Amino acid sequence: MSAAHEYLEAMQQELRDDEHRDPAAAPAEAVIRLEDVSLAFGDLVVLDGVSLEARKGETLMVAGESGSGKSTILKLIMRLLVPDAGRVSVLGEDVAHLTFQEALDVRRQIGMVFQNAALFDSLTIYENIAYPLRENTELDEPEIERTVRERLDFVDLDPDQVMTQLPSQLSGGMRKRVGIARAIATDPRIVLYDEPTSGLDPLTVGTINALIRKLQRELAVTSILVTHDVRAGFRVASRVNLLRDGHIVFEGPPERMIAEQDDYIRAFLS
Amino acid sequence: MAAAMGRSVRDASTGVLDYFVLGGRAVRFAFTRPIYARDTLIQMDRIGVGSLPIVLLTGLFTGMVLALQSSVELTKFGADIYIGNLVGASMVRELGPVLCSLMVAGRAASGIAAELGSMRVTEQIDALQSFGTDPIKKLVTPRLIAALIVLPLLTMIADVIGIMGGLIVSVLRIGITSDAYMLGVLNTLAESGFVLGFFPKDFVSGLVKPFVFGGIIALTASYYGLNTRGGTEGVGIAATRAVVTSSVLILGVDYFITQLMLVVLRPGL
Prior knowledge:
The complex is a heterodimer of chains A (270) and B (269).
Chain A: H1 3-17, E1 30-41, E2 44-55, E3 59-64, H2 70-77, E4 85-90, E5 93-94, H3 100-107, E6 110-113, H4 125-136, H5 141-154, H6 159-162, H7 172-183, E7 190-194, H8 202-219, E8 222-227, H9 230-234, E9 239-244, E10 247-252, H10 254-259, H11 263-269
Parallel strand pairs in A: 3-8, 3-9, 6-7, 7-8
Antiparallel strand pairs in A: 1-2, 1-4, 4-5, 9-10
Helix pairs in contact in A: 4-5, 4-7, 5-7
Chain B: H1 2-29, H2 37-76, H3 83-121, H4 124-130, H5 135-174, H6 178-191, E1 194-195, E2 199-200, H7 201-226, H8 231-265
Antiparallel strand pairs in B: 1-2
Helix pairs in contact in B: 1-5, 2-3, 2-5, 3-5, 3-6, 3-7, 3-8, 5-6, 5-7, 7-8
């Protein structure tokens, strides 16, 4: 038995042993849908006829090599980019045809966890998490503080210890957790994760994965997880889309992807 | 070759258009809610108070050197009594506004471009957008308002300190009395006439310039900062371009404002 085969077997076993996984969950309505989306930057084609959908309450994983267009999909959903062709709909709205103000309103329904947390480095942790609350709600200061404390508790950080610190004073894993706390500060209906576990040690990867699950379980948010760390992604995702050179080459649950015989998919997983 | 040139021209045209679109939106957002008053005050502190020491030094030494250099020629004709006129006119009309703005451009434009550029490459600007915040409204408008307010104030300070520097040299080195020097300064300002019967025209002209230059500094620095590409190296490039471009624009626009002010404030000339 080859090392690659053993590795895939181990992944399959991990999924079977995972008591939190529910591969038989009933399909729900699509909250995010990309239909035949294409996008190019000059001569560089990033996405070519990509279609995918994330259903209510599920965690969809978008995997692929670096530069395959994974993060571009998140930017299209946030309407930070507009497709050259095709349709991107979020919560039933075709985001490409929204006015700037309408696009801002859609963005307020989405929490985004950035690759390097993207915390505002001149603001304290408290101010970072309070920022979306101040921008998008009418909460007064005591309510904002209560919410910030709740969110920090949710991500297993001690509010009294970290609230007054600057992002530069925290470890990479703690910054990621603060990034998640900030993303869910306003109770968004959708959470997008851009490489949430990149550059972290295995223990912290486990902590972040547990948080993503906790979010799905307790807040029932719809999530899209963009990552090239398939092993970590499989632990939280109910379905996977694999991107290659701007095309979706696989769509289905992790268990089926591991069992695929396609050379590229097996090489990617190994 | 021709295609590359065509692409360069097209990119430059797009860049100029983007610059004016940025300026237009930053101005429009100054009149719409929410108003980021706290951010504006912070920027006024950073650009204004932060630039004060360098503006004071520049003004002082410029006035001193101006008095010293002009005394060499004026003394030949027994006209050293006019040093106050020369220093006053030069500082208020030209050197105060331009040198002060160049100093602020060197200090603040690089700071703004580096800060926004760093926010761009670390996805903090994407994060702002993800919270429904328009980065131009949050980041550019406060800097623009701050620069428009503090540049004229800094220029007034530079003018006064420069004239005082000239006074020190005139009294201690050249030997003319402080009364004669100050009389020369006031005469020069009065000669140009008054706006609304009170404000010397030279003074008004000298404040219009830093107002415009403040806009140039804030917008140019923000433009390069927001368009930063390529990590930390890109941040450095953005900061350098912001200083060079805003300095060149200040010197070029200065000529046209001077020409305009001569037509508007001194139609007889």
